[in-house]
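Comment thread on ticket #2218

A.B. wrote:
> Attaching the input chain for the structure job we discussed in standup.
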Amino acid sequence: MYNERTEIKTGEVIVKDAAFHSDQEVYLKGTDTDEMYMKIKDKLIENLTVFQEGQSGWRFRSIVSLNVFTAKYIYKPLKGSSYIPLPSCLASKKAIIIMQNEDEKCFKWSVTRALNFKEIPTVK
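C.D. wrote:
> Ran it. Output below, let me know if you need it in another format.
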């Protein structure tokens, strides 16, 4: 972005090229692009405002270039797997539910069990 200011003593217009950056954003299928655009735009305007306040006399003149960099994001969601017994130190606390099952849906069974909890009598 080009910014300019006028020297009071000489009347000379000084032009300064200043670069402003936004934070990196992750774009996935369900990402709200309007919300992402607004967030990036607001960050750039905030940076420009801070620059102008900190460097008294500077004002925005024009945008020289706008670069958007992308990178392939390899996303592999976590999946359930077969039953793995808890270590005895965790199992003895009776605070973790881990279902023993024969399919690949251990997470589903654990959530179902947690939502439909029934006290299991302990053997003494």
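A.B. wrote:
> Thanks. Noting for the ticket: Residues 80-124 form one domain.
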